[in-house]
Amino acid sequence: MKPRDYYLTLLESNIKNPKMIAHSLASEAVMRALARRFGENEDVWGMAGLLHDIDVELTGADPLRHGPEGAAMLQQEDLPAEVLDAIGMHNEKATGEKKRTTLFQHALAAGETITGLIFAVALVYPDKKISSVKTKSVTKRMKEKAFAASVNREAIMECETIGIPLNEFTQLALEALAPIEEELGF
Asked: How confident is the model at residue 92 (pLDDT cuts 50, 70, 90)?
């Protein structure tokens, strides 16, 4: 695997939207925290978080293409097969009948998705800071389908599939994001 800076430059050469870059950086942070939680390689899991949406602008976020095309784009890069697999599987709509089955696949789907809900909750806080967001606020908003309606709550709940209760998962994600909130634009 190449150094992180290489992959960050690769991401930035494919993604121009600063909000998508922030989402990718947030997903990397959450995936690194999940890797620590499970005793996995932080760099490997972090790169899956960083690069999972590398094809989003190329595919126009087409739910029938996004994910697998990103994995295909990254095939020539020096990334472990498990990273390509998790990236290809993070959007099940594009995988046909194939469903997520591995810890890594579920972690990426849940980890990258909760970042969107946390961002939305932070934006309704008076100071708009991730570091101010409380776990209870995020879990309460999980139940409000109209709030951040595009956030796939089923994907977030895959945290329970990998053995982490929602409250604990939310806290882990908040703790991963708070230190980098300025870099994320909060």
From this structure: confident
For residue 16, tell me if it sits in a domain.
yes
Q: Which long-range contacts (CB under 8 A, 24 or more apart) does 93-99 make?
A: 93/63, 93/64, 94/63, 94/64, 94/65, 94/66, 94/67, 94/68, 94/69, 95/67, 95/68
User: Based on the structure, what is the number of domains in the chain?
Assistant: 1
Helix axes 42-51, 4-14, angle to 10 degrees: 10
Could you report the per-residue pLDDT of 133-161, keeping only the tens digit for each?
999 999 999 999 999 999 999 999 999 99
Query: Could you tell me the CATH number of the domain that includes residue 159?
Result: 1.10.3210.10
Domain boundaries, position 64: 4-180
**Pairwise CA distance, residues 89 & 81, whole Å:** 12
- The pLDDT of residue 97: 86
Q: Which of 85, 138, 135, 129 is nearest to 107 (CA)?
A: 85
Q: Is residue 53 part of a domain?
A: yes
Q: How far apart are CA 43 and CA 60, in angstroms?
A: 28
| CA-wise closest residue to 155 among 106, 121, 82 | 106
- Is residue 124 included in any domain, yes or no? yes
Q: What is the pTM of this model?
A: 0.96
Q: For a pLDDT cut of 70, what percent of the chain falls above it?
A: 100
